[in-house]
Amino acid sequence: MAHYDVIAERGAGSTWWISFPGRPGITSAADDAAEIVTQARDALASVLMCPPGDGLPLSIEKGARPPTDHDLSEFDHPMVVVISFAPTMTKAAA
To answer: What does the pLDDT look like over 20-68, one tens digit per residue?
Structure first.
């Protein structure tokens, strides 16, 4: 199992916009904060389903560094969330 940093940014109402540091093409949205982890995992699973399927962001285990205050300056009230994701299980299920 790998772990990834996710940036969750508050949207309108209870919405949260989800993105992955260093991977601007991987984004999602959650209807509320309780769905952030589920939606982030779904976004990673979608990346694996689209050829070439190797476009996952760098995991913490492979050297990803947490976003710094400077990296987060473009976001409005961001929250950094660490999620677990098992890419091999997703590939087998796909």
So the answer is: 998 888 999 999 999 999 999 999 999 888 766 568 899 999 999 989 8
Whole-angstrom distance, CA of residue 91 vs CA of residue 53: 9
Sign of the alpha-carbon torsion through 69, 76, 57, 55: negative
Listed in order, strand segments (DSSP E) in 1-94 are 2-10, 16-20, 23-30, 78-85
Strand partners for 81: 6
Structure token pair of residue 30? 């959650």
Global pTM?
A: 0.84
Q: Could you tell me the two tokens for 68?
A: 């710094």
Given CA atoms 69, 71, 75, 81 in this order, what sign does their dihedral have?
negative
**What SS3 class is residue 2?**
strand
What are the CA-CA distances from residue 46 to residues 58, 63, 72, 77 (Å)? 16, 22, 25, 27
